[in-house]
């Protein structure tokens, strides 16, 4: 039982990342009809927003500390972050320590701007082109963004620590009546799952209960009719592209302490996220979220040593096997609209 609970927690953790990325992909496909293979790069850029803010807050100046000396007896030069010089050592250290949560505010305008530039500068020219053309151009854009990150940040992963308050693990076992230290889980992974739930709930509430969201949903269902009502649906869809970019970026920001950001992390998540979108149903927002958590839990259970000893390598292919089975039985996906991908 303890192993099952632990794998469910691991699955919710992975599923949170899959669901957030797939949600943004589905928003773009549902509104603009674009297959955006650069969406994983947006996740990567979000993670490097956290890296950039952490580096920015750690910029330092040198001072001489006469009370400390080096091995030759000379006064020791000490590096002090500018933020500590401006706000004092206690507040300055706290700001640096909380750089990842602060990067949420830092990344939102950046990701929206990146989304607008991407949509207006490139993707809008491919709306009426075949999906194959969209895939090629957005995949090429993803490679360009990946290489830019590699050029400026290097090829090695960059550690971006979580706040000290959320380091360590929570003892689920003791809370549920098991022996202490039977089921322990990192605090930050729990924070990530809660954060993903808030973002997903916020997106659905925005689409369901705001006038803007209702118009967008109507445009997703019948774009021409909404346009005939005098509503500039294209402008609203561009805004949705920016919001989808922000969702992917926020997913990357909060994932930075879990998996140290590197230049290829976007590609690592991209293919899996597209599988999630297709399994959930192309254009179905609830389907993307449900499939993300379902496949995350399935992958987590497949990674258990007991399973891998029976079927070696199953953890690497289980998501694709599940996708094949689901799509053979239900071509439109779990919650896809009737007629989509069923021709």
UniProtKB/TrEMBL annotation:
<keyword id="KW-1003">Cell membrane</keyword>
<comment type="similarity">
    <text>Belongs to the binding-protein-dependent transport system permease family. LivHM subfamily.</text>
</comment>
<dbReference type="InterPro" id="IPR052157">
    <property type="entry name" value="BCAA_transport_permease"/>
</dbReference>
<feature type="transmembrane region" description="Helical">
    <location>
        <begin position="190"/>
        <end position="216"/>
    </location>
</feature>
<feature type="transmembrane region" description="Helical">
    <location>
        <begin position="16"/>
        <end position="35"/>
    </location>
</feature>
<keyword id="KW-0472">Membrane</keyword>
<keyword id="KW-1133">Transmembrane helix</keyword>
<keyword id="KW-0029">Amino-acid transport</keyword>
<dbReference type="GO" id="GO:0022857">
    <property type="term" value="F:transmembrane transporter activity"/>
</dbReference>
<dbReference type="GO" id="GO:0006865">
    <property type="term" value="P:amino acid transport"/>
</dbReference>
<keyword id="KW-0812">Transmembrane</keyword>
<dbReference type="InterPro" id="IPR001851">
    <property type="entry name" value="ABC_transp_permease"/>
</dbReference>
<feature type="transmembrane region" description="Helical">
    <location>
        <begin position="42"/>
        <end position="61"/>
    </location>
</feature>
<feature type="transmembrane region" description="Helical">
    <location>
        <begin position="237"/>
        <end position="258"/>
    </location>
</feature>
<feature type="transmembrane region" description="Helical">
    <location>
        <begin position="98"/>
        <end position="123"/>
    </location>
</feature>
<keyword id="KW-0813">Transport</keyword>
<feature type="transmembrane region" description="Helical">
    <location>
        <begin position="270"/>
        <end position="298"/>
    </location>
</feature>
<dbReference type="GO" id="GO:0005886">
    <property type="term" value="C:plasma membrane"/>
</dbReference>
<dbReference type="Pfam" id="PF02653">
    <property type="entry name" value="BPD_transp_2"/>
</dbReference>
<feature type="transmembrane region" description="Helical">
    <location>
        <begin position="310"/>
        <end position="329"/>
    </location>
</feature>
<protein>
    <submittedName>
        <fullName>High-affinity branched-chain amino acid transport system permease protein LivH</fullName>
    </submittedName>
</protein>
């Amino acid at each position: 039982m303890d192993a099952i609970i632990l794998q469910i927690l691991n699955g919710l953790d992975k599923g949170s990342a899959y669901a957030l990325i797939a949600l943004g992909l589905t928003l773009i496909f549902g509104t603009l009809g674009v297959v955006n293979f650069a969406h994983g790069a947006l996740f990567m850029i979000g993670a490097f927003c956290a890296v950039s803010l952490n580096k920015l807050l750690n910029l330092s100046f040198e001072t001489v500390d006469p009370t400390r000396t080096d091995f030759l007896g000379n006064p020791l030069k000490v590096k002090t972050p500018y933020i500590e010089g401006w706000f004092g050592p206690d507040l300055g250290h706290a700001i640096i320590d909380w750089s990842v949560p602060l990067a949420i505010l830092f990344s939102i305008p950046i990701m929206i701007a990146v989304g607008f530039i991407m949509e207006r500068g490139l993707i809008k020219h491919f709306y009426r082109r075949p999906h194959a053309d969209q895939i090629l151009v957005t995949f090429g854009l993803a490679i360009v963004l990946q290489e830019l990150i590699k050029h400026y940040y290097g090829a090695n992963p960059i550690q971006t620590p979580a706040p000290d308050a959320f380091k360590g693990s929570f003892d689920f076992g003791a809370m549920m009546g098991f022996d202490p230290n039977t089921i322990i889980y990192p605090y930050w992974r729990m924070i990530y799952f809660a954060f993903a739930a808030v973002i997903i709930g916020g997106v659905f509430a925005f689409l369901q209960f705001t006038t803007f969201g209702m118009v967008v949903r109507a445009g997703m269902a019948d774009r021409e009719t909404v346009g005939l009502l005098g509503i500039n649906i294209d402008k609203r869809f561009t805004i949705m592209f920016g919001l989808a970019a922000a969702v992917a970026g926020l997913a990357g920001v909060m994932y930075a302490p879990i998996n140290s950001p590197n230049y290829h992390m976007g590609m690592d998540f991209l293919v899996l996220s597209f599988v999630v979108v297709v399994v959930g149903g192309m254009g179905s927002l609830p389907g993307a979220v449900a499939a993300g958590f379902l496949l995350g839990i399935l992958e987590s259970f497949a990674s258990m040593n007991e399973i891998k000893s029976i079927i070696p390598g199953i953890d690497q292919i289980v998501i694709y096997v599940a996708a094949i089975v689901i799509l053979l039985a239900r071509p439109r996906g779990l919650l896809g609209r009737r007629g989509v991908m069923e021709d």
